[in-house]
Amino acid sequence: MFRTSLRSSINVLHRSAPSTLLKSRLTAYRYLSDEARSRIQTAVKANPVVLFMKGTPAEPQCGFSRAVVQILDLHGVPPEKLQTYNVLADQELRNGIKEFSEWPTIPQVYVNGEFVGGCDILIGMHQSGELETLLENNGVIPKIEAESTAEKATA
Amino acid sequence: MPIDTIALEKAIKRAIPVTHLEIEDQSSGCGESYAIVLVSDAFEKKTTLQRHRMVNELLKDQIAQMHAFSQKTYTPKQYEDLQTRMS
């Protein structure tokens, strides 16, 4: 959805750019090349859950990234369904993902190619139960029927 | 130039109606890390993601200069409920 809106806004910019000078400036402004964009497009769909973070799950380099790793772990997201990218190891990705998602900060979480949010949103959704529902509905974790309430009550 | 709380407050209040605003500098004064709690009518009928996008957009220039930015967004009604539950 945001991609279409981004595209259309870029089209508007280009249409309203009369001189080549302005045009080249705008192109520079939109530094996310088509190649980088398609690379990220592939990356966000690499697995049902994709996390762009600072560091790795074993060694997060930032508290916000660590928190998201812990939340995903808490919900039992299986490793084979989770793909993480260390943006600190890839400067192009670090900048590109911010523009791609239109989101200014890292970490960022995608589920089945859809942007979910950053750390604040993940924590909020974890607390409200929305995250569990989202992961279940996307087939990331198995649905647990009535017995889950019993489990929660004893936990 | 480091971002100060006043600049953040101004940018927010200029853009949307604010019922309640807390800005916490978590960087010990270097202006690198902020956490805000923002209560506004503007969040009515918007998902959390939409609210955060809205705040990200209106603080775009400031957030670009920070290391970390954390936000909690509530409608006046939600915030009231939250206060009641916590008391």
Automatic annotation (TrEMBL), chain A:
Keywords from the named record: 2Fe-2S, Iron, Iron-sulfur, Metal-binding, Redox-active center
Assigned GO CC terms: mitochondrial matrix
Pfam families recorded: Glutaredoxin
InterPro entries: Glutaredoxin, GRX_PICOT-like, Monothiol_GRX-rel, Thioredoxin-like_sf
Recorded coiled-coil stretches: none
GO molecular function, one term: 2 iron, 2 sulfur cluster binding
Keyword flag Transmembrane helix: no
Glutaredoxin domain span: 49-116
Record GO biological process: [2Fe-2S] cluster assembly
Name recorded for this polypeptide: Monothiol glutaredoxin-5, mitochondrial
Organism (species): Gymnopilus junonius
The organism's taxonomic lineage, starting at the top: Eukaryota, Fungi, Dikarya, Basidiomycota, Agaricomycotina
Automatic annotation (TrEMBL), chain B:
One Gene Ontology cellular component annotation held by this UniProt entry: cytosol
InterPro entries: BOL2, BolA, BolA-like_sf
Transmembrane intervals: none
Biological process terms in GO annotation: intracellular iron ion homeostasis; protein maturation
Gene Ontology molecular function terms on file: 2 iron, 2 sulfur cluster binding
UniProt family annotation: Belongs to the BolA/IbaG family.
Protein name as catalogued: Bola protein
Source organism of the structure: Gymnopilus junonius
